[in-house]
């Protein structure tokens, strides 16, 4: 059998079966007409057989009515009204016959209309070819429409052997339902066949096949889920949650693949979407996103599939689509569980709210950090040590390694947003001081952020400047950071003095530990024998010890010269402070201080300069024996005294 398609009008198409015989039946399916032959179709379809038989039975009665009308036209009629009525009825019947009966050549053509045929003209064409004996290739995409078409046309085994219904059913059970990817395609094609596909059990069988074989199959089929509508996706996820044999990783893979395939712009790193994924409106995307958020596991995700990058991308998209507050809060809490795996790019979430003044949503990041810290608070008191513990903590608590990683991430984020002119000092300090002390081994990162903030906000008041600088713990700055801070003109004088003091203190401690190192090794003979190693003469150990001592002496000389230089600088600063205090006291009336004391700078007036600059160090600045000269972190969190 060969076929050709010919345009019949501007709104419809015609499909002709060119077998050499004139067509005797015309089927109208949606906007296409099929000119076929009744006997092949009647042999396979009980429904077509019944409809054509009914039309054949009605035709002799119509012929008799036409003959009666012809004979009545030749006779005389005395009743004009009855004649007009009969003529109108005859014209109506003729119009009906013109719609139902067509003539091609000398034979009569039957007409059947299928306005609700499942699968449309394409599926009817395949079913018609099957009736003519043409080989039909079944696929995961067409098996569900053909199964529904066979049910609609009653192409069952009761009417003819090896019929279309049995063929489609066998292919569905033996091939499609054996692989979740094929079952997903059949499920997608069933969305346009409801409720017939639901009545035939196609939908339920496909959903169960996907859920049952999701863990055993490879991951290559996960992208196929993107073609499903939201309703079918929810049914698949519900079926997977109801089964105990489905691994959590398989559920997460289904979730991630569906989200990336259906929500445009979810990931900035993904430049393309699946070609088969349906395009959705903004309202539909919002509904899809909230459904994906609801499908997230209640417990902490494995991190291998639902990564921190994916969660932050969902959070960014939820801001764009203006998702519900509950969905955004759930995403923030879920992102906090994997905060240590996030990158700076992930955390840079733009502010899409018109009320926000900053370029990036700093409030959102601050909430995520607090959710992260809440897990440690549930686990117990945070350790005051700044060293990284090698042993992992309790499962419900972030490890010390994760805490340090989050500290570095927050410092990088602060340095990125510090240049925003609309970022308030209070908001900057809240985020900088939200982490505990042991989250930062060194404060070089937060010092860099503070320096950028001071440079971008030159009009800060002295009080605001002191509060911003107070986020830095001078005791935890490296030598390089101390050197930079000592020459930083943007820092208040108080901060510079603290940096110099702690730099000197670190040098003195280094010298002390260096001097005590040889005594800790034991007796000189034991030290020489230890350096010589087993089986080696002691003179080799003595030579090595002498070389180490020489190198150590050179290092000590270098450190000692640096300490002397710092002491000279501190002495010069003390003299300058005394001169300033002296001039301040001499300006008082009568050359006396405000409290009636002398003008020598020993009274309260002498401390006026220190009070103005918050300096608490006088002669104690360079005193390495002082044990308690550092303000606590609690004092740094408040305003400077």
TrEMBL record:
Domain of life: Eukaryota
TM segment ranges: none
A Pfam family annotated for this UniProt entry: NPH3
Gly residues bias (residue ranges): 585-606
Keyword Ribonucleoprotein attributed: no
Keyword Ribosomal protein tagged: no
Annotated metabolic or biological route of this protein: Protein modification; protein ubiquitination
Gene3D superfamilies in the cross-refs: Potassium Channel Kv1.1, Chain A (3.30.710.10)
InterPro entries xrefs: BTB/POZ_dom, NPH3/RPT2-like, NPH3_dom, SKP1/BTB/POZ_sf
Coiled-coil segments: none
Segments of skewed composition (Acidic residues): 76-96
One GO BP: protein ubiquitination
Keywords: Ubl conjugation pathway
Location of the region described as Disordered in the Swiss-Prot/TrEMBL record: 52-105, 576-611
Signal peptide limits: none
Sequence ranges assigned to domain NPH3 in this UniProt record: 219-506
The family this protein is said to belong to: Belongs to the NPH3 family.
Stated name of the protein: BTB/POZ domain-containing protein
Source organism per UniProt: Panicum miliaceum
């Amino acid at each position: 059998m060969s076929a050709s398609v010919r345009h019949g009008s501007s709104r419809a198409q015609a499909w002709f079966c060119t077998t050499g015989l004139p067509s005797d039946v015309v089927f109208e399916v949606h906007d296409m007409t099929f000119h076929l032959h009744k006997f092949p179709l009647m042999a396979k379809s009980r429904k077509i057989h019944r409809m054509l038989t009914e039309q054949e039975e009605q035709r002799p009665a119509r012929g008799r009515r036409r003959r009666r009308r012809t004979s009545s036209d030749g006779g005389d009629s005395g009743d004009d009204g009855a004649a007009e009525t009969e003529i109108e009825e005859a014209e109506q019947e003729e119009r009906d016959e013109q719609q139902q009966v067509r003539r091609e050549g000398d034979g009569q053509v039957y007409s059947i209309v299928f306005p609700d045929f499942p699968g449309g003209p394409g599926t009817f064409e395949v079913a018609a070819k099957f009736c003519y004996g043409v080989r039909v290739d079944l696929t995961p995409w067409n098996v569900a429409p053909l199964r529904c078409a066979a049910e609609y046309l009653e192409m069952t085994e009761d009417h003819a052997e090896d019929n279309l219904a049995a063929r489609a059913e066998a292919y569905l059970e033996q091939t499609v339902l054996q692989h979740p990817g094929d079952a997903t395609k059949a499920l997608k094609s069933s969305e346009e066949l409801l409720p017939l596909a639901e009545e035939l059990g196609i939908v339920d069988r496909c959903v169960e096949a996907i859920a049952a074989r999701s863990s055993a199959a490879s991951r290559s089929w996960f992208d196929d889920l993107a073609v499903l509508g939201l309703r079918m996706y929810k049914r698949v996820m519900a079926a997977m949650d109801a089964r105990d044999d489905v691994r959590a990783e398989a559920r997460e893979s289904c979730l991630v693949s569906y989200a990336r395939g259906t929500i445009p712009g979810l990931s900035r790193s993904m430049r393309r979407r699946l070609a088969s994924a349906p395009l959705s409106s903004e309202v539909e995307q919002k509904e899809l996103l909230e459904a994906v958020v609801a499908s997230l596991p209640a417990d902490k995700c494995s991190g291998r599939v639902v990564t921190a990058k994916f969660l932050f991308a969902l959070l960014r998209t939820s801001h764009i689509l203006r998702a519900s507050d509950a969905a955004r809060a759930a995403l923030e809490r879920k992102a906090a569980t994997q905060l240590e795996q996030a990158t700076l790019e992930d955390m840079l979430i733009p502010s899409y709210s018109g009320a926000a003044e900053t370029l990036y949503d700093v409030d959102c990041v601050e909430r995520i950090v607090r959710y992260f810290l809440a897990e440690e608070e549930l686990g117990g008191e945070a350790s005051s040590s700044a060293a990284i513990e090698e042993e992992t903590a309790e499962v419900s608590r972030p490890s010390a390694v994760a805490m340090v990683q989050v500290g570095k991430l927050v410092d990088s984020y602060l340095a990125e947003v510090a240049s925003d002119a609309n970022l308030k000092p209070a908001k900057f300090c809240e985020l900088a001081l939200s982490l505990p002390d042991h989250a930062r081994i060194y404060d070089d990162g937060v010092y860099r952020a503070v320096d950028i903030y001071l440079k971008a906000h030159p009009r800060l008041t002295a009080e605001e400047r002191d509060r911003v600088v107070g986020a830095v713990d001078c005791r935890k700055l490296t030598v390089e950071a101390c050197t930079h801070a000592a020459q930083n003109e943007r820092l208040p004088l108080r901060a510079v003095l603290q940096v110099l003091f702690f730099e000197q203190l670190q040098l003195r401690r280094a010298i002390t530990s260096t001097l005590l190192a040889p005594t800790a090794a034991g007796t000189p003979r034991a030290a020489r024998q230890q350096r010589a190693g087993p089986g080696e003469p002691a003179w080799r150990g003595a030579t090595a010890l002498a070389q180490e001592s020489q190198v150590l002496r050179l290092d000590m000389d270098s450190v000692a010269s640096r300490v002397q230089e710092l002491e000279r600088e501190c002495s010069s600063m003390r003299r300058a402070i005394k001169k300033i205090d002296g001039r301040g006291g001499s300006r008082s009336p009568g050359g006396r201080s405000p409290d009636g004391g002398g003008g020598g700078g020993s009274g309260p007036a002498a401390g006026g300069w220190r009070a103005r600059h918050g300096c608490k160090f006088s002669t104690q600045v360079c005193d390495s024996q002082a044990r308690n000269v550092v303000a606590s972190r609690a004092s740094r969190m408040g305003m400077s005294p």
